[in-house]
Write a structure and sequence with these properties.
The complex is a heterodimer of chains A (about 260) and B (about 160).
Chain A: H1 2-30, H2 34-37, H3 39-49, H4 54-78, H5 85-123, H6 126-132, H7 137-175, H8 180-190, H9 193-220, H10 226-256
Helix pairs in contact in A: 1-7, 3-7, 4-5, 4-7, 5-7, 5-8, 5-9, 5-10, 7-9, 9-10
Chain B: H1 2-29, E1 41-47, E2 58-61, E3 64-75, E4 80-87, E5 99-104, E6 111-116, E7 128-130, E8 132-134, H2 139-156
């Protein structure tokens, strides 16, 4: 009997949490007009969420591109197909690694910071204070962060991919001696703008939406204690990463499944 | 105030970099830059079998790319494949009796249309047809013929 109570309680708690998250998202969108009347709030948040994440994204993108190029070269050279190196690097980056890795890094670097910031505001009753002063905290605090994260990740994923391609170019052409013309032309022959690049961008938009949604909701919904905030931060990173990987599978099977 | 301007400048740099990354992806990595052939004119060629030729495959003259395949369809009246070729506007002096051959890059590579110039005095114009064509080499057919010949000669002994 205890077991049933435990399972049922867990299910009810999760479903009602999902419901709260959806209502919260709806209120964030209602509060979204604020970013047009006060764009400085959005600019400030893009700085905190996007610009400060730039370093890790650029460095990670560079190294991922270089490693891909190394590994790809070692595999392809066995088949005498090292001329396809550029194509392999570019396809794996645009379709998968760019959006997914950028979203995972973003969840760790910016998502956790968003949750901790909003959670601490709640724990120190700043959000309640705003409501006292008839300032809607969702409009003033949450909505700018949400839209800034959403917007930043799309740009960051594109930067990750572009830097990765140049990292791959550096290793492939400069170090391993693949011909530069072949590297670029095999890439341009094989990468289709609509099929590969646009679907990568769509992926990064979806990931940006989900990761920032989870981050701001966990912060807003955190138990307002030191322990509650730390738990919420952990949950953000874990849930956002799992959501990105699961959604990536779904999106990939939708986009590339029916060839 | 100064600090805020620095922040705004960084955000501006970030957005510009992001948009530049989109530009790099579209033009350098993707094929948006080479998707269109500059002021192209169209030539039609009919083949019995186009093999693995696809829309946007290359059209070459002496190995140099001068255009792309624009459209492929089957003519229902004679069941032959009609391939419309986009040829770049600056190659206006293709002789009217040129041949179009579907060739393969490498043994298993992608297929493309190779044009072979003829000796005619008049040139191909927009909407003209190439009369002399040679179909794609289908590897399976070749292997089939080879095996058939082998077994024939084996019987002969």
């Amino acid at each position: 009997m205890r077991l049933f109570t435990l399972i049922g309680g867990g299910v009810i708690a999760r479903v009602s949490r999902l419901g709260r998250a959806s209502v919260f998202l709806y209120r964030v969108f209602l509060g979204g007009w604020q970013i047009f009347t006060r764009p400085s709030l959005l600019v400030h948040q893009i700085y905190a969420v996007g610009v400060l994440t730039l370093t890790i994204i650029l460095v990670a993108g560079l190294f991922v591109g270089m490693v891909l190029s190394f590994q790809g070269y070692n595999t392809l050279v066995d088949f005498g197909a090292e001329s396809s190196l550029g194509l392999m690097v570019a396809l794996s980056l645009t379709r998968e690694l760019g959006p997914v890795l950028a979203a995972l890094l973003f969840a760790g670097r910016a998502g956790s910071a968003l949750t901790a910031e909003i959670g601490l505001m709640k724990a120190t009753q700043q959000l309640a204070g705003m409501e006292m002063m008839a300032v809607n905290p969702i409009e003033r605090v949450v909505a700018p962060r949400f839209f800034a994260g959403f917007f930043s990740l799309t740009l960051l994923a594109a930067l990750f991919t572009a830097v990765g391609v140049f990292g791959g170019h550096f290793i492939g052409v400069t170090v391993l001696g693949v011909d530069a013309g072949v590297f670029w032309s095999s890439m341009q022959e094989g990468v289709d703008f609509n099929d590969d690049i646009v679907s990568g961008i769509v992926k990064s938009i979806v990931f940006g939406f989900v990761v920032t949604w989870i981050a701001v909701f966990e912060g807003y919904d955190a138990v307002p204690t030191a322990e509650g905030v730390s738990r919420a931060t952990t949950r953000t990173v874990v849930n956002a990463s799992l959501a990105v990987l699961a959604l990536d599978f779904i999106l990939t099977s939708l986009m590339f499944g029916d060839v | 105030m100064a600090q805020r301007q620095v922040m705004e400048a960084w955000v501006g740099i970030f957005v510009v970099m992001g948009l530049a990354a989109f530009g790099v992806l579209a033009l350098k990595v993707g094929n948006l830059s080479s998707a269109d052939v500059a002021d192209a004119y169209q030539i039609e060629a009919r083949f019995d079998n186009i093999g693995g030729l696809k829309v946007r495959s290359r059209v070459t003259l002496s190995g140099v790319r001068i255009g792309r395949v624009k459209e492929i369809y089957v003519d229902p009246s004679d069941y032959r494949a009609v391939v419309i070729l986009d040829i770049a506007g600056r190659y206006t002096n293709l002789p009217a009796d040129s041949t179009a051959v579907i060739q393969t890059a490498g043994i298993l590579g992608e297929q493309y249309v190779a044009l072979d110039p003829g000796g005619d005095e008049s040139f191909l114009k927009d909407g003209d047809k190439i009369m002399l064509t040679q179909s794609a080499l289908v590897l399976e057919d070749l292997i089939g013929k080879f095996l058939y010949n082998k077994s024939d000669s084996g019987d002969g002994k």
